[in-house]
Amino acid sequence: APLRRETVEMARLVHDAVAGMAQLFTERNIQVSENLDPTNPCTVQGDYDRLVQVVINLLSNALKFCDPQSGKIDISLRQGPHYVRLQIRDNGPGISASAQKLIFEKFTQVHSPAMGKPNGTGLGLFITKTIVEQHGGALRVESEIGKGAMFEV
Fold this sequence. Notes:
Strands 2-4-5-7-6 form a 5-stranded mixed beta sheet. A two-stranded antiparallel ribbon has the order 1-3. It is about 35% helix and about 25% strand. A hairpin with a 4-residue loop joins β4 (about 70-80) and β5. It is globular. By secondary structure, the chain is α+β, with helices and mostly antiparallel strands.
């Protein structure tokens, strides 16, 4: 289906996505901090439903890999001159440099000994990257083993 183009307030979208997942965060004892500027709605032109999917996929990923004892997810949103930058950081096991090259491909799942067998289809990040690119954006990851991961849109 073609993308709808409408004015989307990313700050509200992120806040609503987090609120919708609050129960999951509570069940897993994960602290979520939203670093959103209350005076700036961070408006973009895009497809609300697909952008929600991007945020939920990235939050679900962070949730899945968070430290099971003291999970933390930090979300920040910043307005640049011609872009909005969303960062979602977790305190999970991190992603090796070799795995970082693969995670955005179809049906790829990173196996972590601590996590056991991966769950899901291995399509989440591929779909997320596709949606972001359809909007003219980019998705990247920064991570080191043992230091969590940060996904940036």
